[in-house]
């Protein structure tokens, strides 16, 4: 009998975001530093441990999984994990967040593993600006990866774009036109203060309200009540299949309907992206290789410390949260 996870504020938790690596082939300026130090391999959950955790979460009523990172597709043997995930009956939805750099080779595998949705990060359509933002990324590879995913029959692809004032905010219209052309949705994400990076986030912050106002000068955007189960608020483009979403942690608090927890690549169960409360699951997984109940018990008990809301604040010079998004899993 499945005992659903209910937190102290009576929110039902049925969505797990699992980071399977903190490593990445990009170094996006809003996400990490150029000289990023990654975890030693023995401090990262094995893929077998990650799979075991997913099964434990499904035994507690989790039905939706997002595989993220770091860049999940750089993890060795990633195809094995997706194949195993596709066998878990209780999982109704498996989605992936990727920077798209390895999609050309992996899109067929993801299709075979019945991955329901892929979110692809795309912050620029200008190769020079793309390189400036990602530091190491090659725009062409990502564009080819998007085409391969379309070719494989993924019909519900979504672009994720972090807009930064003076860096790529002037590309918002082009990015929406690109999404229309590819029949994809696109979400704009406000930059969040996670980890210490090389620029001052307050200087590059642009609110989604401002982005929306700008887009409304060019597009006929109709408000909708559509939800993909996440915090994005969607607008429908008139006469197009494309929806434009806005994830606005600063301007619109989305915590009331929070239905998720995150597990980092180190096996830390984070109860809120913007708060420090966490439970270490790796020691339990290793101490009890054949018994799930101690891990189930720890997860159930964690519901009593899940915070009510995040506390993002761009006014303070230090980030609200010292860990990077690539550590917690975006
Ligand atoms: N590497 C993959 C990617 O880029 O899609 C998955 C991991 S990445 C951490 C997940 C998402 O988090 C991406 O869409 C990225 O743009 C976003 N992200 C990373 N750092 C962020 C920050 N400080 N504020 C807002 N979004 C951020
Ligand atoms: Fe890598 Fe994704 Fe972070 Fe960019 S946003 S550095 S692609 S983890």
Tell me what the structure shows.
The chain is globular, with a radius of gyration of 19 Å. It has one domain: Aldolase class I (TIM Barrel, Alpha-Beta Barrel). The relative contact order is 0.17. Helix 1 packs parallel to helix 2. The model has no long low-confidence stretch (mean pLDDT 91). The strands form two sheets. The protein has a twelve-stranded mixed β-sheet with strand order 9-10-11-8-7-6-5-4-3-12-13-14. It has a two-stranded antiparallel sheet with strand order 1-2. The two termini are 31 Å apart. With 330 residues, the chain is α/β, with parallel strands linked by helices. It has eleven helices and 14 strands. Bound molecules: S-adenosylmethionine and iron/sulfur cluster (SF4). S-adenosylmethionine (SAM) binds next to strand 5, strand 7 and helix 11.
Helix/strand layout:
Blueprint: E1 5-6, E2 12-13, E3 15-19, H1 47-58, E4 64-68, H2 78-85, E5 93-98, H3 103-112, E6 117-121, H4 127-134, H5 139-151, E7 158-162, H6 172-182, E8 185-189, H7 201-204, H8 208-216, E9 221-223, E10 233-237, E11 243-247, E12 260-263, E13 268-270, E14 278-280, H9 282-287, H10 293-302, H11 325-328
Parallel strand pairs: 3-4, 3-12, 4-5, 5-6, 6-7, 7-8, 8-11
Antiparallel strand pairs: 1-2, 9-10, 10-11, 12-13, 13-14
Helix pairs in contact: 1-2, 3-5
């Amino acid at each position: 009998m499945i005992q659903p996870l209910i937190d102290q504020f009576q929110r039902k938790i049925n969505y797990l975001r699992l980071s399977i690596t903190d490593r990445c082939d990009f170094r996006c300026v809003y996400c990490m530093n150029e000289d990023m130090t990654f975890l030693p391999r023995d401090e990262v959950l094995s893929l077998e441990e990650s799979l075991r955790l997913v099964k434990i979460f499904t035994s507690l009523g989790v039905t939706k999984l997002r595989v993220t990172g770091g860049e999940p597709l750089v993890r060795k043997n990633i195809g094995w994990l997706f194949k195993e995930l596709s066998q878990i009956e209780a999982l109704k939805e498996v989605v992936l967040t990727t920077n798209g750099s390895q999609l050309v080779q992996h899109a067929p595998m993801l299709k075979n593993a019945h991955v329901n949705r892929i979110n692809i990060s795309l912050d620029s359509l200008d190769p020079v600006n793309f390189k400036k933002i990602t530091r190491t990324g090659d725009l062409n590879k990502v564009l080819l990866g998007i085409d391969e995913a379309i070719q494989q029959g993924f019909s519900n692809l979504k672009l994720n774009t972090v807009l930064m004032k003076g860096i790529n905010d002037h590309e918002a219209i082009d990015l929406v036109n690109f999404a229309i052309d590819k029949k994809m949705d696109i979400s704009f994400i406000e930059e969040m203060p996670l980890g210490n990076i090389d620029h001052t986030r307050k200087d590059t912050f642009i609110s989604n309200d401002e982005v929306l106002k700008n887009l409304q000068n060019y597009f006929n955007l109709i408000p909708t009540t559509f939800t993909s189960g996440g915090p994005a608020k969607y607008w429908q483009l008139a006469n197009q299949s494309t929806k434009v979403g806005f994830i606005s942690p600063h301007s619109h608090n989305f915590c009331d309907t929070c239905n998720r927890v995150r597990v980092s690549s180190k096996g830390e169960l984070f109860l809120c992206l913007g708060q420090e409360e966490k439970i270490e699951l790796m020691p339990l997984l290793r101490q009890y290789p054949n018994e799930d109940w101690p891990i189930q018990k720890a997860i159930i008990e964690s519901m009593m410390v899940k915070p009510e809301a995040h506390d993002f604040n761009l006014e303070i010079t230090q980030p609200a949260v010292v860990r990077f998004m690539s550590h917690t899993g975006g």
